[in-house]
Amino acid sequence: ADSWRDVSEKLLKLDAESLLAKTSRALGLWELAGPENEKIADETAQQTFAQAPKEPRVAITYAQYLLHRLMAESDAATAAGRPQPEIESAVTKSMMELLGMLEAAVEENPGHVALVLTYRDYLFAIPSLGGRVTPEQADQLRTRMETMLTRAVELNAGSPRGELYLALASFELGRLELTHPDLKPADLPALRDEIDKLEQHARQAIAQD
Q1: Is residue 114 over pLDDT 60?
Q2: Of the candidates 6, 106, 177, 189, which lies 20 to 30 Å from 49 by C-alpha distance?
């Protein structure tokens, strides 16, 4: 983290408007931790987002800032004895806003692998962070995520990325488990098409490894 910060500081001296330098600085300072470092990192993340909200590195960095803020607010609410449903609702609202921010960036950069996978990671993190979405919201989010992953695979067809195929395989597995929670061996023949799709993505991921 020290070297990361030091390199970003040198880059900023060469180009004060460098998005790479600014985002690297924020990430490095968050890693170092401490109130002063985190304050500067937070301010840098906000400044870069105001400058270029849909630039992939900026969006990924700003998402981390929003997550830090969400967790701090959630911890404070818990310490203050706020009702759990209230905290759950606040976490869900904040995560939906975070995902909306990332989705806007993905729409402008649909082939950016790290950005698409960051969206996937934050979507899957909602339950572990204490949020809860309705079944309807879950369906909508999964549909959007599948569209993003599929589009990213298409745009990277010239240089296939194993992590995208693995993400699609994981997505198909999750959907299979969700729609068939009590799956039995006798059910498999009727689900052959879905299983074939999952296996295809898994084979494609292995082929790129």
Answers
A1: yes
A2: 6
